[in-house]
């Protein structure tokens, strides 16, 4: 489980294809604190550390994860938002994040307004995910509050600190992002869909 509060950025050093899997090697300031088998969220994707070599570590993504996330778009040199799993008893500064990406979204608007940044993303509504104004959403692993919620689209506001400390500063119109919708909202949406079918 995660909180959506990014610890640091990692830089992709190598991506190696192995059958349907991808082995991704990353340089990070927290590498020396990691352990084999540890879970780390990468742009909101929970991946397991499989090897460590000095300042680099490697994680493996299976075919199903690659298909449902933006991993297939990653390239050497890209920055990724990193967060280690929370410890029992830690403060929950963001919201409950599972590290299970629900779907890919697309950035449609990037706007700077008096020191803050506003981003709008759209997503495929056929998967029955929902947002509500003032509700929580995870974008590339970052816990955010929804500013505007519309059909298959939502907006968020980013303070300068978040802009500087995450890879939001690389986003432009057309950028693909990982979306994890609020877990409570997902249960409500699923129950409503079942009730409607019955």
- Helices, by number, come to 3
State the order of secondary-structure elements, H for helix, E for strand. Answer: EEEEEHEEEEEEHEH
Radius of gyration: 17 Å
Please state roughly what percent of the residues sit in beta strands, choosing from under 5%, 5-15%, 15-25%, 25-35%, 35-45% or over 45%: 35-45%
Q: Which structural traits does this protein have?
A:
single chain, 198 residues, mainly beta, six-stranded antiparallel beta barrel, six-stranded antiparallel β-barrel, 3 helices, 14% helix, globular
Task: Please give a structural write-up.
The mean pLDDT is 92. The strands form 2 sheets. Strands 1-2-5-4-3-6 form a 6-stranded antiparallel barrel. The chain has a 6-stranded antiparallel β-barrel with strand order 7-8-11-10-9-12. The longest helix has 15 residues. It is globular. It has 198 residues and is mainly beta. The protein starts with 7 loop residues before the first strand and ends with a helix. The protein is built from 3 helices and 12 strands; from the N terminus they run βββββαββββββαβα.
């Amino acid at each position: 489980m995660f909180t959506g509060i990014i610890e640091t950025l990692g830089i992709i050093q190598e991506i190696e294809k192995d059958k349907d899997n991808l082995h991704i090697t990353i340089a990070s300031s927290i590498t020396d604190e990691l352990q084999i088998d540890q879970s780390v969220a990468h742009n909101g994707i929970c991946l397991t550390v499989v090897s460590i070599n000095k300042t680099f570590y490697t994680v493996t993504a299976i075919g199903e994860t690659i298909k449902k996330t933006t991993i297939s778009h990653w390239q050497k040199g890209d920055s990724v938002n990193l967060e280690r799993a929370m410890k029992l008893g830690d403060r929950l500064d963001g919201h409950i994040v599972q590290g299970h990406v629900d779907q890919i979204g697309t950035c449609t608007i990037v706007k700077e307004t008096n020191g803050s940044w506003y981003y709008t993303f759209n997503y495929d509504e056929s998967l029955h995910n929902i947002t509500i104004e003032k509700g929580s959403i995870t974008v590339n692993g970052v816990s955010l509050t929804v500013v505007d919620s519309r059909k298959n689209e939502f907006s968020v506001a980013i303070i300068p600190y978040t802009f500087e400390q995450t890879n939001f500063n690389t986003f432009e119109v057309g950028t693909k992002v990982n979306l994890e919708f609020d877990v409570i909202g997902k249960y409500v949406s699923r129950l409503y869909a079942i009730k409607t079918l019955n």
